[in-house]
Amino acid sequence: MLKIEHLSKTYGQRRVLQDLSLSVGAGEIYGLLGPNGAGKTTTINILCNLLQADRGQIGINGQPVSAKTKCLIGVAPQETLIYRHLTCAENLRFFANLYGLTGRGQRERVEACLAAVDLADRAASVAETLSGGMQRRLSLAIALVHQPKLLILDEPTTGLDLEARFAMWELIHQLQRDGITILLTTHLLDEAERLCDRIGMLKQGQLLAEGSMAELRQLIPAQEIVLIQTPAEDAAIARAAALNFPQRRYGRDLAFWLPQPMELKAILTQFEGIPLDSVSRQPVRLEHIYLEVMQRSP
After folding, report:
1. Which residues lie closer than 8 Å to 192 by C-beta, 6 or more apart?
2. What phi and psi, each to the nearest 5 degrees, are found at residue 153?
3. Mean pLDDT of all residues belonging to the chain
4. What does pTM read for this prediction?
5. What is the model's pLDDT at position 298?
6. Cys-Cys link to 224, which of 146, 186, 197, 261 (CB 3.0-4.6 A)?
7. CA nearest 291: which of 210, 241, 220?
8. Per DSSP, which regions of the chain are E strands?
């Protein structure tokens, strides 16, 4: 559905994208992750034909990016860009007109999109009276009104409470089940881990790592991570080094990578003689992989 080949973009002396290549298959959810300034927004702007690349090619559904491919793309931006003084239905009708939808076809599409985001009963509600989660869903309905092949979701749950986040996640999964291909950017790594079939990690315009969670887990030599709190950190670190357990620090947490999962009793045995305030086990998560990939790169 989406193919990016050797994309490069420079602003003055700053290289924003450096030979970026990736592909997203039909019906796939692909997560594009990276710190601020990594090049995610620039990539989206080039995809939408709002910005010209210096080099490289992009194909959408087999067509090179141009004014003609705009109708193939729906975008729900990070900012909730809706007309707050219009009703939900009026917002959708406005954008439907921009795509040339009129008459009965427009009415059916507006009704279908409101139903898809669970806002059918709020069609006549003024947008500014909606909750933040509802406004996000309205923005998503607008992105879907012209039946795009590729949906771009830029930070889709920023600012939402936990319940609204879960509702948005289920909606995104439903869109995938309906056959829509999704390119998603997010700073919430648990969100990417839950939603995405494959993930690409971008830093300074370069794709550092890419793959499914199973593939990305192969990037670090750990099957499990143990977090330890102890007043004798130096002794714990020395013991872990003798056991060939790589050590990391995640914020204030002292962590050790285990090559194989271990029962808690076995872990305590390995650190016998060292005072431990707490010990916890956790699986290798995307946050651990992401930090490792980003810190390895200059």
Report:
1. 31, 33, 184, 186, 199, 286
2. -115, 110
3. 93
4. 0.91
5. 65
6. 261
7. 220
8. 2-11, 14-24, 29-33, 55-60, 63-64, 73-76, 150-154, 181-185, 198-203, 206-211, 224-229, 247-250, 253-258, 278-282
Higher pLDDT, 83 or 298: 83
CATH code for the domain of 14: 3.40.50.300
Residue where a domain stops, chosen among 217, 247, 278: 217
User: Which residue range(s) make up the domain with 108?
Assistant: 2-217
Query: What does the pLDDT average to over 88-100?
Result: 94
Last residue of a domain, one of 177, 201, 217: 217
CA distance 183 to 44: 9
Phi-psi domain of 291 (left: phi exceeds 0; alpha: psi -120 through 50; beta: other) = alpha
Residues 38 and 123 in one domain: yes
pLDDT tens digits for range 151-160? 999 999 988 8
